[in-house]
Sequence to fold (458 residues):
Amino acid sequence: MTALSASNRTTAEWKKIDSAHHLHPFTDFKGLTDEGGARLIVRAEGPYLYDSEGTKILDGMAGLWCVNVGYGRKELAEAAYAQMQELPYYNTFFKTTTMPATELARQLVELTPEGLNHAFFAGSGSEANDTVIRMVRRYWALEGQPQRQVIIGRRNGYHGSTLAALSLGGMSAMHTQSGILPGFAHIEPPHWFQLGYHEDPDAFGVKAAGWLEDKIQEVGPDSVAAFIAEPIQGAGGLVYPPATYWAEIQRVCHKYGILLIVDEVICGFGRTGNWFGSQTFDIKPDLMPLAKGMSSGYQPIAAVMVGDRVADTLISKGGEFFHGYTYSGHPVACAVALENIRILRDEGIVDRVRTDTGPYFQKRLRELADHPIVGEVRGIGMIAGIELIRDKARHEFFDDVGKVGTIARDHSFANGLIMRAVYDTLVLSPPLILTHDHIDELVEKVRLVLDKTAHDTG
Ligand code: PLP
Fold:
């Protein structure tokens, strides 16, 4: 077998073929071609990527918030290889299962918060969230309240790209392009820096949770089925909840009897210093979609963890649930996820993020708060946002929202660091295996990026 990297094609040839035939996700197709095509990533090791020109890049995003154990873990390749030889595929539909799927369900139940005793497998976070919608509607129909259809999400929440998942989410650009399905409503996220800066953060947290109650009243309490949110809103600009937010959200959900869906696709598997963001923020979800860090991105796999309230109804009253994916519980993906969980646990990676590297990462990043264009640094564990601002003293944001963020993002790429910009917030979500030295290197690069950005915009 010959790897494609051994081919004689030049980088220019690869780019030309790619531009001619490959439509990239979340990409301006023509814009990318006009820029000369996509950067070709050829290999990776630890937290570093290497492109076809040999440039070494520190991956401050762990791929797409997913490569939690870092790149180049041979054990994961070996787990896939062994499983492929033994049983490369079989489905879990027709009263069959496989050992990796069964064992993974057991381990997920053990790791996730109490009361989530069942797993339903999917191939991606989007599919997991489509599954969540199906389960929520089925639950209420079986409970004799089929009119409870509306799921409330949050503006700038991201739950995936299928039509159902983007309706659940609150990304206006996606809604504008494709419309949204009926049965979804959205509230503002608890973005203290943008929406509550002059208020006490704890009081603002209670107020922001109150927006859920307002929306329930507006929709009609008997029509609301569930509320969905990420523990920390990731792709929507790293919105870190005030300390009072989640307790109050849970109080409102209980008051109206609605289901609580906590989307752990980003926060799961150690990112916040606990196995799940729900443990960090003391949340008790009824349904919990998982993906990304579950296999560290080495295989596409996702799951919905189902709490007893929903599972008991689906199991005891439901009959056949007409839902599933060809790759639900794919044995190779499950085998890789199991090995990934073993690495995270046995190497103490999650514990280290909570007690050592996470606090160090956050401390070092907060040193950047003195920079003239940095308004706020927020986050926990190995997830952080750096919000840029035009005038700190007057708390004035940049006029053309997103422009300065994009300039910073481009400087970052040009200086060997992958950092994302969401509007004017720079986002970091690196592999969980970063050492103090890696963190120092990352922070140094971010400061350089901030200096260059301030220079360009000054
Ligand atoms: N949920 C959250 C919180 C996400 O961040 C994402 C992807 O970024 C998704 C769901 C969708 O996952 P996928 O891209 O695997 O469909």
Summary: The chain has 18 helices and 15 strands. The pocket of pyridoxal-5'-phosphate is lined by residues 64, 124-126, 129, 158-160, 230, 234-235, 263, 265-266, 291 (CB under 6 Å). The domain at 39-72+349-457 is CATH 3.90.1150.10 (Aspartate Aminotransferase, domain 1).
